[in-house]
Fold these 3 entries.
Entry 1:
Amino acid sequence: MEDYGIPFKEFGWICYVVDGTSSEIRIDYKFSSGLTESNSFNLKLERDIKSKLEQLFKWAYSKLTPPNSFKILGKEIQPYYDVEHLLRSIIGPIFGLPNEGVGIYKRVKTKRGERRVERKYLKKEEIEEEFLELFKIIDEYAWEKTSEKIIEEFDIPKDTLPPYINKHVFFAYRCGVEKIAEKLATYLISKNIKVWYFPWKVGWGDSITTEEEKGLKNSFAGLIIFTPDFLEGRTAHEEYRALIAKRKEDPHFKVGILRVNCGREDIPEFMKDYFDVFIKSEDDPDFDNITHIIWRGLLMLPLETPPD
């Protein structure tokens, strides 16, 4: 995170559980320089986020070991226990957790009516994939809300925030290169960059024009998958013109080009001042290296990885 935005040293969230539900989470963070003290704030949960957290509470409960039973007047009693709160590390060893780990605090009611708390920590590798995806959704929600709070509280200029926190890269392409687009989109998502990719964003019955306009509005950069026939496609041409218009309006908006089996001379001259890269096809042996270069280009980093 330090290379392209606010330098977080630690970042995570805590959610307190009451009867299997919660109305807010607490977000904690610490910068690696400057404002080094810990900061935190509480955030009210939106309904869809709340329902996903409730799924995680049930999962957390399943990870707990039931406390030992006890007898009262010869009757076997199973102590009451539940999840008191759930902790999540997104960056660094916050709350004493391993990086990207989870903490589950168990609340137990003893035979004397007292309550005690026990802790269970899980590494990323110990979290099932379906629940890891749920954690990532909450992480992203916390990240987006934190960026807004930090701008307001510490008066940090918006252009110091990584643009991909709240927005995505808009893909423009013609039919026939879907496999290339999907491989590239999957790679960028694995690097925590959101992607507007037509088959993933436009559903049955949706207005194509409306969805594309929303996609362009909420993008921080564009990527054109440029083929020899790209400008002959009506939709591709419209997307191309929209990307160029946005680029003229917003000096921070960038448009990268992935040339597929076509020469640099095929690109309009005024599009050559940012970055463009070349592959022959989806089976190009250099494809993985090219996707890494595109990732760096979209983040406005030097295209070549600097030596250690």
Entry 2:
Amino acid sequence: MALTWELSLTLEDEEGKKSVVSLHLPGGTLQADAEAFAAAIALLIDVLTGAKIIRIALALIVTLPGGLKANALAESEVEIGARFGFLDAQAFRTSVRIPSFLLAKLVAGSNAVDVTDADVIAFVDAMEDGLTPIATLVEPCTNRSDDITDLSTAIEAFTKTRR
């Protein structure tokens, strides 16, 4: 199994319940690039959720970037989220769940994420094509270090919380 960075973002809703978004980066990613990617993807996830991001971790705790919300939005619940399913070039699946996903980002009358929403497009593009937060392109990958190539699903997803 290939070595990868595991990036996790802990989100907290207005009731203090927590949930974690986890994704992977290739093991060869430099620490400075991985930290910069974490800050950049946090900004993209922050606009998709009603919860507040309270922690980012890569093998160490990363300082939260400026620009994130200071408090969780009213009625944000980490149990209600959205799961984004992605494929790699070999059609293996990986997914990312964003807790307390904003209901306004769902297709009305459906559990489907509105993939035409500008904030959703920005997040999906970052997952598929990466970001260049400093000078080096950083691309998320599967836990086998394979490149994520396509969005396969994006739906509302419920889960239990942890305190």
Entry 3:
Amino acid sequence: MRQFDFLATWDDSWRIVEALLEMKGVSLIPDFNYSEPEPQTVSELSQEVRDKLQQRAQLFIWSDSFSLHPPVLKRIEGRTSGVWYSVTAQEGGPCLSLMLPACYHDGGHLNLASGTLSCQKLYLNPNSGNWEPPTIELVNGFKQIVRLLKNSFLQRHQLHVAVWAGKNAIHEIVENDARVHGYGLD
């Protein structure tokens, strides 16, 4: 599995999501629980979408250049709340997964956690029924988005290891003693 980890505040994350929304041919599908087997495509970063993403911070990235099939939603039987549907990254697509860093305040401190852009090791091709490795187009899409993140939103910052972090996250670490989770710092 290809994976790129980074630190970011919510403000850093919103800038990243807005940049992805501006990419030609890219669709963002949040990993929400859906009442129908039809996913919501995010076209703008409204306050409602921000609020939902702060509760469930995963987005799937679909692109005309690397996604060959529509999203697949799995039916989930709830114990008390009936039936809902959830997007699966392993089927359809292929797609990329973006887990936004779930930062939060506790005891007057900002707590930063890692966000991740990833690409599944194998995808189920709905036409053949076979598990297949990522296409070269998907790998190139992953690399393109990593370059975008590194060149526009993130900087290398030295903790006990070098990490990629958003500008606001670095400011919070340096100026306001934000706590960093992950990277062996817990």
